[in-house]
Amino acid sequence: MPPSLDIRGDIGAAQLAFYVPIAVITFFFTVRHAFEKDAGYFFLFFFSLARIAGGALIIAAELVQPSNINLFIAAYILFPAGLALLMLSFLGFVGLAGQHTVSEYRQTTYILRLIAFFAVLALALSIAGGLLGTHVNPDANTGLILRRVAAGIYAGSYLLIVFATFLSWSYNDLMRSYRRNLLKGLMVALLPLGVRVAYAVLEAWSSSDIFGSEPSSNPNLPQFNPVTGNYIIYLVMGLIMEYLVVLLCLFLSTIGMRRRRHRRHRH
After folding, report:
1. Domain count of the chain?
2. Which UniProt keywords apply (predicted)?
C-alpha cells in the first residue's frame, strides 16, 4: 500500500496553498522596494519561503520511501526558526510606519536594531538547538538548553516589539494618515503575534527533543508539541496566528500605499 499523508501532512499541503501566493506578492514588493529590509516585505518573503519549505519537507518525509529522517528534522527546525523571520518582518513594517518621523530618531533606530539582533540570535539558537540531539550531534542536553534559551529570547523580543510599536504610536500625530493606519493595524497584529510567541515558549518546554518522543512530565505541556501534541492547538496557536500577522501586515501596508498613490495622482 503506497504511503499517504497524515493530518500533519495535510497541514503541510495547506501551507503550500496558503503561502505560495504570499511569496509571489511579497517578492513583487521586495523588488519594488529595491530589497530594502526596512520595508518588511524582504523578510516576509523569506518567511513565506520557510513555511513553503516546511510544508514541502513534511509532505516529502511522509511520502518518500524509504523514510528519510533528515527531511523530518529540517521541517521541525524550520517551524521555530521561522518565527525570527516573522518578527524581523514585523519590525520592518514598524519602521515603514514611522518612516520620515519616529523611525529616523536615534532612540528608535537603536531599539529596532537591538530587537533585530535578538531575533537573529534566536534564529541561530533554534537551528543549533534543533540539530543537537539528533544523529547530526547527539548532545541532546545542550540542544534542549539552546532551544529553551531561543524561546526565552523570542519572548523578550516580543516584549521589546510591543514597546517599540507603542513608542512609535506616541508620535502618531507626526505621521501621515496611511502610515498611522498601518501602525494601528500593527498594534492589532501584536495579539496574534503574542499568541504565536506563547506557543513557541510552551513548545520549548513540551518535550526534551524535537521529535516529541520525550514529553514533559507536566501533563499539560506535551499537547503544545507541534509534532506529537494536539494538532488543533498547533494549527490555531501556531500556523493560523502566523498567517493572521502576515495578512494584517501585507494588507494594511499595500492598501495604504495604494491610497497614497491614488491621492498623488488626483492632485
Report:
1. 1
2. Membrane, Transmembrane, Transmembrane helix
